[in-house]
Structures are given as structure tokens and as C-alpha cells.
User: What shape does this take?
Amino acid sequence: MKKETFGIGILSLTALVLFIATYFASPPVIASDAVQSHDFQMVTARISVGGEGLYILDNRTGVLTVYTYDMASRKMVPRVARPMAEMFPVAR
Assistant: This one.
């Protein structure tokens, strides 16, 4: 067996292993920006003071709560919790 033939064989085997690894690789994780169920609706969006906020609407009670991440305490902190009727008043 020649040295060149051995090298081509090893490279071909390596290419086959890499091809199989990419074919069976798990799909990348993609974050969703909105979630809805019968009881709750959740969405992330920018807040006016900067950063991201998690908006959670409780469909049973109609209360909208906004959570933000506090870097000092490293916890999610509720910022606002109000009924939807107060958030979007109807003009008369």
C-alpha cells in the first residue's frame, strides 16, 4: 500500500465521519418570543428604560405583569402589575 493511497483513504474516512456527524447533529435551539396557552400569554419586548422585559398576561384575571432582570440581585423582578382595563382605557 502506497503512502498516497493510505492518506487518501484516511481523508475519505474522515470526510465520511464528519458528514455523518453533521447529518445526525441536533437542531440548534431557537428562542421563541411569544408563548400562548389558554391561561397565559407571554412575550418579550424592549422596555423604555433599556433592556428586555417579560410581559405576562393572565387571561383569567386580565392582569398584565411586566418582569425585568435585576443585575444586582440576579433575579427576575416584577415592575408593573395592572388590569388590562387600566393599561388601555377606552375613550368615550
